[in-house]
Amino acid sequence: MFDSGSPLFVRLLSLFHVWLPALLLWLVPRLGYDPRAFWVWTGLGTILLLVSYFLLPAPPAPAATPALPVNVNLVYGFSDAAPQPWMPPLAYLGLLIIAMPLLCYLPVHLLLRRFARRACGLAGDPGEATRESRAHPEQAGPKERRIVRVTAGGLVVGGLAALAAFLIARVIR
């Protein structure tokens, strides 16, 4: 986003770091926060880190294609020029898989669980859909029709955690 050597289009793609948190801050008060989202996002985040490590290119970028994105999700360290030299690569990946949920997802989850209203339709909530309302969706109330509870909560945890990780990476670089 801040590298003037990258094409403008590629830098503009990073603007999701701006609009996504704003969208999520708008969604949570409307839909509520589902505490199960922490576990969903932890699993999804782990899968994304593994995919980034095993399927996407490691730094440095090839000379023939210098704009090729490398070190996606910082799985090789904080530099796009070379992998981190502090520890074995798989140990660093393991540390990242443990650190992301503990340092990024969990604090956001705890804040949302404390300050955001709980999503309707969860077990034990008065708005929980009954078997009859699931069998006859035309009788379901508006709260029972919302199908994005876990997804919105997961996006909030993931989006804000990604923003935190992005800002931490900028400070460390």
Residues in helix, %: 55-70%
> First CA to last CA: what distance?
14 Å
* Biggest β-sheet description: none
List the secondary-structure elements in sequence, H or E.
HHHHHH
Strand content is: under 5%
Helix run count: 6
Radius of gyration, rounded? 20 Å
Class inferred from helices and paired strands: mainly alpha
Average pLDDT level: 76
Assembly type: single chain
The number of distinct structural domains comes to 1
Low-confidence spans: 126-137
Characterize the overall form: globular
DSSP summary, beta strand count: 0
What report would you give on this structure?
With 173 residues, the protein is mainly alpha-helical. The protein has one domain (8-119, 142-172). The protein is built from 6 helices and no strands. It has helices at 8-13, 16-31, 37-55, 89-115, 131-135, 149-172. The two termini are 14 Å apart.
